[in-house]
Write a structure and sequence with these properties.
about 130 residues; alpha+beta; Nuclear Transport Factor 2, Chain: A; 2 domains; three-stranded antiparallel sheet
């Protein structure tokens, strides 16, 4: 059990009354209580396959917003923000010493997990931190 998770046992009806945390059911007796992160962004993490797939899907939209084509479009790091869906703040390498920051919104599963490029920041460098924008 990591320090970010706490095992709790309680009646099922209490699950609906609890408003300050998210829960994951493991089995009928065990529930893990996780800290609620709604609103804030996570710490920056190295990009993974899922984040690269997001970049691959929105590349043409990013090129349209930037007004240019990118020969390279590689996700490097990212943060997420839990909203009514998920905002991804992604640092992508676009060639040479140039990076861009992307804000991509992913809808909830019941809405089809669609992606929308919300905004971009161009002329970024490798050392520029990903910030909320």
């Amino acid at each position: 059990m990591s320090r970010d998770h706490q095992e709790v046992n309680f009646p099922f009806s209490q699950f609906y009354r609890e408003k300050t945390a998210r829960f994951i059911f493991v089995n009928a007796q065990t529930v893990y209580k996780m800290p609620l992160l709604c609103g804030g962004t996570t710490e920056a993490k190295d990009a993974n396959e899922e984040v690269q797939k997001i970049c691959d899907e929105i590349k043409s939209h990013a090129e349209d917003k930037a007004g240019r084509k990118f020969d390279v479009f590689t996700a490097k790091t990212f943060k997420t923000q839990l909203v009514a869906g998920t905002n991804y703040f992604i640092k992508a390498h676009v060639g040479g010493d140039e990076y861009i920051h992307l804000r991509v919104y992913k809808t909830l599963p019941h809405a089809g997990e669609k992606l929308e490029l919300h905004s971009i920041q161009t002329s970024k460098a490798h050392h520029d931190p990903i910030e909320y924008f």
